[in-house]
Amino acid sequence: QRQMCIRDRLVGTLSREDKQNYYVDLGRAHGILPKKEIIPGEELKMGSQIKVYVVKIELGQKGGPVILLSRSHYGFVKRLLELEIPELNEGIVMLYSVARDAGSRSKIAVYSENEKVDAVGACIGEKGIRINNVSRELNGEKIDVVEYDKNLVTFIKNALSPAKDVEVYILDQKNSHALAVADGDNLSLAIGRKG
Fold it and tell me: CA-CA-CA-CA torsion for 177, 183, 184, 185, nearest 10 degrees?
């Protein structure tokens, strides 16, 4: 229960740092944010308020809790989306999965069981305001919102957008192995920057 309370809060104040870690004041407790867990390229300033994700709570050597934090974990993106998009909290839109290359790009797959609801549009928001707010908190990280589909071929094609005319072959249904074939400009769009 304590873990949920801290995890829901997400906000703390940077209180000090050493060579490997930042220390975050969470109110009634302190958390450890390893420097390898910040978003690549971001600069954090002592005394500033930051949003964090609780990765793990362990019992410390002196008997107190050790709260490990992250800003690069994929779960951080999930929490930010839940804060920004009311339809996710209300269960109108479901978050199927998040894939993240912290500091560069995240892809989120969403869907709704209500056919009248545009799950992707709800996440993006009018003029992109919702997704831009999340991106800003992630130090400008790009966020692609794709529609989840139970049909693996359709889902993979959605995930590889904006590439068009991609052929998808399911190699192993049980282990979800597939082959996607694209050519020309669609190849570079499908594989993305750095492949």
Answer: -40
Is the per-residue pLDDT at 7 higher than 50?
A: no
- Quickly tell me which residue has 């951080």 as its tokens: 76
Other C-beta atoms within 10 Å of 152: how many?
13
pLDDT tens digit string along 61-115?
777 788 999 999 999 999 999 999 999 989 999 999 999 999 988 999 999 999 9
The mean of the pLDDT values for the chain is 88
Q: What one-letter code names the amino acid at 170?
A: I
Amino acid at 92: I
User: Mutual orientation of helices 129-137 and 74-84 as an angle, nearest 10°?
Assistant: 140
- Supply 187's token pair: 């190849």
Runs of H (alpha helix) within the chain: 2-9, 74-84, 86-90, 119-124, 129-137, 152-159, 185-191
Cross-strand partners of 145: 108
Residue 178 contacts residue 158 (beta carbons within 8 Å): no
184 Cβ neighbours under 8 A, 6+ residues apart: none
The per-residue pLDDT for 79 is 92
Supply the pLDDT for residue 195: 66
Residue 166 has pLDDT above 60, yes or no: yes
pTM of the model: 0.83
pLDDT of 189 = 83
